[in-house]
Amino acid sequence: MSDKIIKKEELQDFLKALKKAHEVFVPAKEKDFYRFNPLTDENKGDLNFTNTRLSPKSLLFPQSERIFEYTLDEESSDAHIVKESSKDYPSTVIIGIRPCDAKAMRLVDVNFNNPEFKDPWWVKHLESMTFIGLGCNEPCSTCFCTSVGCGPFNEEGLDVLLFDLGENFLARALTPKGEELLKQGGVDKDANSGLKKKADELKIEAENKISSHVPTDKLKEKKVDDLFNAPFWDDIAFACINCGTCTFLCPTCWCFDVQDEITKKQGDRIRNWDSCMFPLFTLHASGHNPRPEKVQRVRQRFMHKLKYYVDKYNNGVACVGCGRCVKSCPVNIDIREVFSLMNDL
Amino acid sequence: MKRKEDIDLIFQPNLVRIERILPQMSDHRLFQLKFVDEDVARAFFHAPGQFVEVTVLGVGEAPISISSPPTRPGIIEICIRKAGSVTSALFELQKGDFIALRGPFGRGFPMDILKGQDLLLVAGGLGMAPLRSLLQAILDDRASYGDLVLMYGARNPDDILFKYELLGLMNRTDIKYLLSVDVDEEGIWRQYIGVVTGLFERVELNPETTFCGLCGPPIMYRFVVQELLKRNIPTERIFVSLERMMQCGVGKCGHCAIGEYYCCTDGPVFKYSEISHIKEAI
């Protein structure tokens, strides 16, 4: 682990140097919101953001991704053969990913990349990525990262963590990949102890600014049945309109749907994000639907994040406290309240 | 731990040829399938109750239970009811056409546990499709099991799956085969008329030694399980096969989540004791 210094006026030089060898994504403002876009001559990135509206999970787990292809042309020599779509996995650097989102990628990785199962596309996307995170000097009001094993300067899942010290960034390399990248980008000036101290203070200061806290300590010991049959689900679900916004914004939601699309004689098998909030999610061709009621679907989502994942992977809750669902839910369903209700049942 | 090459190929559909299509009742057909690649065919081994993901090129993929037993390898049989887009497309196909399979997936019936035990199989409607795999596996190795009872409840005398094949069991002494129909409008039915639970009056079940395998619509489970509990069959000896939208087959896409379980990897065959506490399970 080494701490280097990047002067703010030299940031563009650093990014340009990286761009020679990698695809580089930076936060960019589009209308009222930020998102990760490729670094170009026009898009130089803008690090004065709170967080992107959508999490960066789409860079590793695209909202729609072609996974197989085939031809329906009987004349073709490979008619009927379903072939994996060939894809490039160029080395990619994500600049400015927030620590909560970086941790989220680790949580999803537990699901998609373990001894029992390796999702071929997730694994290759993840391997091609380097994450240069940006700590949060000013966490937003809906953030509750410190309650769920994360924090505004959490290092998990990051290769480099940037501390915004005003005139400079302190760049803390956390992995050999991160060290290498800083070297490639021409960052070689060591941070002096004064700046290191300032960075550490910044971290504590930011942690103290997090105003939302949720309890999680008793989730593990709760009985699944007690939580499932708890009296509060109707109240939580009452206002839900099943729009699925929470699942699409959530950096740790990974459910997907696979569809075949046909264009003339070309068939593509496409994997798309799906949402457990939708009634069709569980509908069988027979007409039977095991979760026809919205209260069942709302319960499923929270139980999955705050109980089933906790029990299955012994890795904490499947939530990093980014606050996106709290901020964007059109009917103000607040996962922080659900944490309290479930934990303190 | 699984082998790396198995993990890599988990989403890869393998080409199969439709060897034969056997019409069943009105909207059901039995497809006999054979892998084109002989290595794939040899490596395919399933337990009764497991399922495959069936691809019809140009349409999509659907989870279908395997109707043939592991004791008769080479040909894989799937019994299809015309219901959704994939199954409807299957009905357009003919002998010699190609489709593709992934699998087998999931946890089937625990044959090692069932060996040597008295068995009661209860099927309702299309539930006979996966249960036939279990039934044939037992019949092919009959000496390894104890008493065998099969109860099958169909809607009406016309809607009986594997009708003639199962009729052959009527004369056997090593299986008690009881058939019921819910309604018999034409008045042709000589056997039991009523719901399948009515058949329980005709059997003696030893609660000490009987294991049960159930497959049918959710409503059937509720009533059959009640009958079994009345007869003191322990819940951990009742195996139920659940139906869910099992899309990826490997516990990742989320569609088949039942409480803390994924139907496609933890099931589709569950001990009743495992799922009886989950309200949404049945």
Your description of this structure?
Chain A contains twelve helices and 13 strands. Chain A is an alpha+beta fold and 345 residues long. Chain A has two domains: 2-53 and 83-209, no CATH class; 224-343, no CATH class. Chain A has a seven-stranded mixed sheet with strand order 1-11-10-9-6-2-3. In chain A, strand 2 (23-30) and strand 3 (33-38) form a beta hairpin. The radius of gyration of chain A is 22 Å and the shape is globular. Chain A starts with a strand and ends with a helix. Chain B is α/β, with parallel strands linked by helices and 282 residues long. Chain B has two domains: 4-105, Translation factors (Elongation Factor Tu (Ef-tu), domain 3), CATH 2.40.30.10; 111-241, Nucleotide-binding domain of ferredoxin-NADP reductase (FNR) module (Rossmann fold), CATH 3.40.50. Chain B is built from nine helices and 15 strands. A seven-stranded mixed sheet of chain B has the order 10-9-8-7-11-12-15, sandwiched between helices. In chain B, helix 6 links the parallel strand 8 and strand 9. Chain B starts with a helix and ends in a 7-residue tail after the last helix. Chains A and B meet through strand 4, strand 8, helix 7, strand 12 and helix 10 of A and helix 1, strand 4, helix 3 and strand 13 of B.
Short description:
Chain A has 345 residues and is α+β, with helices and mostly antiparallel strands. Chain A has helices at 11-19, 57-60, 99-112, 120-127, 176-184, 193-209, 224-228, 233-237, 245-249, 294-313, 324-328, 335-343, and strands at 2-7, 23-30, 33-38, 64-71, 83-84, 92-97, 113-114, 117-118, 129-134, 160-164, 168-173, 256-263, 266-273. Chain A has 2 domains: 2-53 and 83-209, no CATH class; 224-343, no CATH class.
Produce the secondary structure layout.
The complex is a heterodimer of chains A (about 350) and B (about 280).
Chain A: E1 2-7, H1 11-19, E2 23-30, E3 33-38, H2 57-60, E4 64-71, E5 83-84, E6 92-97, H3 99-112, E7 113-114, E8 117-118, H4 120-127, E9 129-134, E10 160-164, E11 168-173, H5 176-184, H6 193-209, H7 224-228, H8 233-237, H9 245-249, E12 256-263, E13 266-273, H10 294-313, H11 324-328, H12 335-343
Parallel strand pairs in A: 2-6, 6-9, 9-10
Antiparallel strand pairs in A: 1-11, 2-3, 4-5, 4-13, 7-8, 10-11, 12-13
Chain B: H1 4-8, E1 14-23, E2 28-35, H2 38-43, E3 51-56, E4 60-65, E5 76-81, H3 85-90, E6 98-105, H4 111-114, E7 118-124, H5 128-139, E8 148-154, H6 163-167, E9 176-181, E10 192-193, E11 210-215, H7 218-230, E12 238-241, E13 257-258, E14 261-262, H8 263-266, E15 269-271, H9 272-275
Parallel strand pairs in B: 7-8, 7-11, 8-9, 9-10, 11-12
Antiparallel strand pairs in B: 1-2, 1-6, 2-5, 3-4, 3-6, 12-15, 13-14
